[in-house]
Amino acid sequence: VKADAENAKVSVRNARRDTNDAIKKSIKADNTPEDVAKDAEGEVQKLHDRFIKKIDELFAAKEKEIMTV
Fold first, then answer.
1. Does the pLDDT value for residue 69 go beyond 80?
2. What is the spatial distance between Cα 59 and Cα 57, in angstroms, rounded to a whole number?
């Protein structure tokens, strides 16, 4: 279960990195204003944090369930 939780976290981090890279490319290619890009990166970070927290909660619940059996 721990390995699955860590793999899920890695996937979330990779998605954040890919999204931030796309945001940075849009600044260069589309002349997206930097303040809009920073806001977008902030939203991506909030989503990242929310999903990492959810993964941690699910892991803790499953770990507790396994230990009680």
1. no
2. 5
Share of the chain above pLDDT 90, in %: 83
The half-sphere exposure of 20 on its side-chain side, counting CA atoms within 13 A, is 15
Task: Specify whether the CB–CB gap between 37 and 26 falls below 8 A.
Answer: yes
CA 26 to chain CA centroid, nearest Å = 20
- Residues 15-33 pLDDT 10s: 999 999 999 998 888 878 8
Closest C-alpha to 27, from 40, 12, 15, 14: 40
In order of 13, 22, 37, 58, the CA distances from 26 in angstroms are 20, 6, 8, 35
CA dihedral 60, 7, 23, 50 (to 10 degrees): -10
